[in-house]
Design brief:
The complex is a heterodimer of chains A (about 500) and B (about 270). By secondary structure, chain A is α+β, with helices and mostly antiparallel strands. Helices cover about 35% and strands about 15% of the residues of chain A. Chain A is built from 16 helices and 13 strands. Chain B is α/β, with parallel strands linked by helices. Chain B folds into two domains: about 80 residues, Alpha-Beta Plaits (2-Layer Sandwich); about 140 residues, Rossmann fold (3-Layer(aba) Sandwich). In chain B, helix 5 crosses helix 9. Classes of the chains: A alpha+beta (about 500), B alpha/beta (about 270).
Amino acid sequence: MKDRRKPGDLEPRQGSAGAEFSVPLAQGGKPARLVSLFGSLSESREVVVRYVFDVGDPDYQIIECRVDGPLVSITPRLPAAAWYERELHDQYGVTLSGHPDLRPLLFHENWPEEIHPLLETPAEIPWAKRRYPFLKVQGEGVCEVAVGPVHAGIIEPGHFRFSVMGDVVLHLELRHFYTHKGTEKLFEGSPADSSVMLAESVSGDNCFAHAVAYCQAVENACAVAVPPRAAAIRLVGLELERLISHIGDAGFLANDVGFVVAHALAGGIKESLLQASASCFGTRYLRGVACPGGVRTDLDAKQVAMLRDSVTQAAREFAALAHIILETPSVQSRFETAGVLYQNFAEELAVVGPVARACGVDLDVRRDHPYGHYRDLQFEVPTIHYGDVLARARIRIQEAAVSSRLICEALGSLPPGPTRLSVQFEGQRQGLSAVESPRGELLYWVGIENGRLVRCHIKSPSFQNWPAMPFAVAGNIIADFPLINKSFNLSYSGCDR
Amino acid sequence: MILDILERSLRERSPLIPVEALWNTCEGSRLPDVDPALLTPAIARRVSEICPTAAFTAREESNRMELKLSYGECIGCARCIDVGQGAIVAAKAFPWTGVSKQRLVRRWSVNDRAEVQVISPESEEARKEICALLGRALNIRQLDSGSCNGCEAEITALTNPHYDLERFGIHFVASPKHADMLLVTGPVTRNMAEAVKLTYEAVPAPKLVVAVGACGCSGGVFAGSHAVVGPVDAVIPVDAYIPGCPPTPAMLVSGILQVLHQRNGNR
């Protein structure tokens, strides 16, 4: 995944105004989709900014810019860059000219100004009390409803500021990063072979996707191809994680419209898969299974048969349950037309994953940027164009069926051989890798120097998708917010890191 | 549709796991145990070197060697089991959940090949006593102070038909003001520290606080981060700890019941 920039068409220009370049174009002349944007430090400790684009090729396109002076913001041209540039500003103190909103993103009121942890390692950070101005919606009858960070339920923390007129939400402002743990900084200096455990703790319910994305980035950096058996076991793990996640989501969606029996049944099916995972891999959520060079756990014939049976049975039960959920009139009346995300908004904000596929944006890393064992398998990528809660529920139900089929197919023809290769880490290396996590495109970029990480950037699908949610909520009644939020099912920790 | 559900419910067996089968089990957590008979100085050194969170530490003093294992730090990565040559195994019975911080720590004398100060797992009598506690009400408020959501996923599983925490009279409540117990997950981040304190203050006395997961117990893999204040007890007083990364639902059930048992004994 090297820089595929051709000299004429996209040229970063260094000038007094900073770096400026023309956004690459995808097929059809539309601007390419922004995948990620992040900083890192060069050997001379200059800030280097990398823009990752998807122009429709199997390889991502990376544009590098050295920062000398203020950087011209690309947010006015590509709204999807808004949070990335705010993060860049927080982490590295890069000045961005022309950015419409440079309020702190990662750091709340208790952080003093001018702390840029990835530029300089902070020793002791004093406690400050700054102000954070929320957008004020004014007018007769407009009320503000503040919710969170601590929510009523077993949910992660985040703050939602609704401006409502009666029951109708006029505007929703998100304030996240309560669970910001400085993970990208923790990667710096830690050994490349064991840091997979940090990747696993970025978003606990998608930990295998994070682990595989991290390992693949390290393997790409070191030019290692994992053995076929390891690639197949990784595919089984990734699809199992997707299946578990989607079954759980369908249950929670039913729960949010008061259909608690369906929630209980979905919880039971999900649990049976977690127990199967524990007896095959030793861990319920596949923690500690992936490692650079392959996987640490092999499956024997008995475990393969057992996992296949569990997945087949779970898929059958879930298909029947999904039918019951979708055919219940009270569920339909709540799901239909709730929380519509329009395709043009989704495209402008570069939304990924099931949320994108539910509003007609046909993206899937497994098919568009194939990796591992996905190169050898045929599978369909369902899309729906309605963009409402019902569409997001349907997408997940259809994807669960594809996942269970892929698991059975991969388990049916597990290649023989070793499951792990040793990885050599000499010298300076860089690597990038993306996987399709249950929430969508997840990308890791690593810089390695003599076996230790000098930089690890995580583009999580939640970070990309959160800014799109307010557009789906506006115009709905506030009581539908939990349902719409659940239908997006974004991770707070994955976003906040 | 209702008839379909009814038909299904009547047809299928209840998946409910009896409390005896949950008690002191930790399958799926990969937390380690030590077989002292096979322990050698080389193994003790090797596991303390390989442990990424320093849960295992070996101390050598004038020809004597002690191996210490702190479950609060352990993330269940099983690297010690990989190199332990049979001396380090995955724990089967696991009574170290819902206990004090001191009891999360175990020590073995490598020379004597024996555990120092063995605290035996709960006896049969204690188990019966605990079962007798069941049926009382306990209201839990779960609080995420910066977790990766792995612990949340397992706490949510407690309400599924396999574990059904409600059968013990234990409910999750929406407001800290209705809660008897705070179940706190995650390292406390800088951005959550104030909210954690305020939530603690909102719980009416006597309040029980249980720190959950490696991050809640010790900071886990996030210990030392500039954006993290520390484990839960760095911010609010903690009564008991449930280790694991994440703890399995069985460990959570055992831990919560253990806390109730301890509390009953102290009265």
